[in-house]
Amino acid sequence: MKIKIIYTSLTGNTQEAVAVLSAALTALAAQVEVFDSEDGIEVADFFNDADAYVLASFTDEDGQLPDGILDFYDDLTDFDLTDIPVAVLGTGDTTYADFCRAVDVLTDQCQEDGAQLAVPSLKIELAPDAAATQEIKRFARQLTQQIAA
């Protein structure tokens, strides 16, 4: 099974969460491709040739999507994701009122475009600690089980 992950990270927290996810998926025999959204991958190229797709982002201080994934998000609007399995995770800081709002924004847009939410979205406080690492591994197991079903 092949899973593609696209992420944006500023402080490294989301990048670290993606690394944990990628390792967990690989341990579950998935072939994983990881893309930094700032490298400019097109939506049509990303949502191609995989069994599932993961979007990962932090949330800007003002509760918005960060600039690093904004172009991808804009192109995602009205893109046909009918029945495509998608999962979303993100990192944030609970001291902000809009904790991990980017996760909700990405999830909502994918569902509006027809995507099948493969697993419940995952929100992580800052960098993954031991508990968050276990949650990411559970997320990976659920995702691979859902794809295999």
TrEMBL record:
<keyword id="KW-0813">Transport</keyword>
<dbReference type="InterPro" id="IPR029039">
    <property type="entry name" value="Flavoprotein-like_sf"/>
</dbReference>
<dbReference type="InterPro" id="IPR008254">
    <property type="entry name" value="Flavodoxin/NO_synth"/>
</dbReference>
<dbReference type="InterPro" id="IPR050619">
    <property type="entry name" value="Flavodoxin"/>
</dbReference>
<comment type="function">
    <text>Low-potential electron donor to a number of redox enzymes.</text>
</comment>
<keyword id="KW-0288">FMN</keyword>
<feature type="domain" description="Flavodoxin-like">
    <location>
        <begin position="3"/>
        <end position="144"/>
    </location>
</feature>
<keyword id="KW-0285">Flavoprotein</keyword>
<dbReference type="Pfam" id="PF00258">
    <property type="entry name" value="Flavodoxin_1"/>
</dbReference>
<keyword id="KW-0249">Electron transport</keyword>
<protein>
    <submittedName>
        <fullName>Flavodoxin domain-containing protein</fullName>
    </submittedName>
</protein>
<comment type="similarity">
    <text>Belongs to the flavodoxin family.</text>
</comment>
